[in-house]
Amino acid sequence: MAPSAWVHAGGPSEPPAPAEQPSLPETPPPVGFIHRGIAQEVYAVLVDLDADPDTLLAEVCLDRRLFDGGGTPVPYAALGRLIALGAERTGCRHLGLLIGQRTALTSLGLIGLLMRHSGTVGDALRALEEHTGMHSRGAVVGLGIVGGVAVLSYSPYEPGAEGAAHHTERALATVTNVLRALCGAEWAPLEVLLPRSAFCDTAPYRGFFRAPVRFDEEVAALVFPAELLEQRIAGADPAAHRDAEEQIRQLEADQPPTLTDEVRRYLRTEVTRNRCKAEKTARLKLLNRRTLSRRLRAEGTSFRQLANETQFRLAKQLLTGTSISLAQISAILHFSEPAAFTHAFRRWSGATPSAWRQANPSCDAEGQREDWQPEQLAPEPAV
User: Fold this and answer.
1) Are the C-beta atoms of residues 171 and 220 closer than 8 Å to each other?
2) pTM of the predicted model, to two decimals?
3) How many CB atoms lie within 10 A of CB 55?
4) Which residue, 73, 120, 199, 302, is most buried by CB atoms nearer than 10 A?
5) Residue-wise pLDDT tens digits, 211-237
């Protein structure tokens, strides 16, 4: 089965090392932020590569104190700019991979504790899917099963985020480390999908994942046998699981996401699967269409604007980060024909898709119009 179809959808292992209790109180980061612990790994890798992290931090307007003690979250977009700039200055195209390799199960705090004490690998990954906002409110994790194959995807949705290619490979490397902690150090996926073009030296990816790596894909994902989801996690403690889950749910209840953020998360998972429709979104949120519109309007946006924003952001990522053809991108985004995609993209950006791609050749940038606001009128296709 082709990986594109997967997108739209072992023996006993060594006991995993005990997960440590989080050393600092945890709270979900605000929308568009990522926890400081992940940012610290970025700083450490830059030091290892003999870069000057403080100079790079100043260039992307990040405060050095965010990377020291305390639990202050870091802006997701600014961290993406830092990783992209670090990759450019060091010449290390796989910087995101190196960052993710440093992240262990214990680095995930309460989420890591919940996963460590889940009954099965599937339970652990579904917990990650449900509660990923505890560590990052700038991306969404999805778990799907198609024909005996499981696909775990990671998709940035924060509209101002840059360096998406690095963010996604960082996340896939982190999840690979987590699965090796739960399943044994020899675990490897069937395939790895990355939404960026291949470059000269892909050996670091093959060496770490120990699996075929497919570039120029529409989504970042790990592909593995679905039967792995039923594997029991050795040494899981149900009491520790209940305690971690209770703490997480209480923290999430104290700092719930906005409806805008929830809709962005949902649209990012649906944009390559189906046409994004307000009626379906409203049903999933247990709202009627008018209530959904009213609540989004109160937050300064609309469903149509968020849907356009989601399509535009993914279109930019695929245009600048991959060599996928314009016709394929049009189909991925469910436009009726390439001409409709070109018309919509021109309305969003002021340029045609081909002109945008030519002007933004780097896979480490997602465009230069950070002040862009989606059109209020819907382009084709209708949403």
Assistant:
1) yes
2) 0.80
3) 11
4) 73
5) 999 999 988 999 999 999 999 999 999
Instruction: Kindly state the tokens that stand for 245.
Output: 């889950």
Tracing tokens 């045609």 back to the chain, one arrives at 352
* Cβ–Cβ < 8 Å for 262, 281: no
State the average pLDDT over residues 197-217.
Answer: 90
For residue 135, pLDDT beyond 80: no
Beta carbons of 209 and 192 less than 8 angstroms apart: yes
**Beta pairing, strands 149-156 & 220-225:** antiparallel
Burial of 300-312, coded b for 16+ CB within 10 Å and e otherwise, reads ebbbbbbbbbbbb
* Enclosing H/E stretch for 214: strand 213-214
How many other CB atoms are there within 10 angstroms of residue 16's CB atom?
20
Residue with tokens 């403080």: 54
Strand 149-156: give its sheet, edge to edge: 139-146, 149-156, 220-225, 191-193, 213-214
**CA–centroid distance for 106 within its chain:** 20
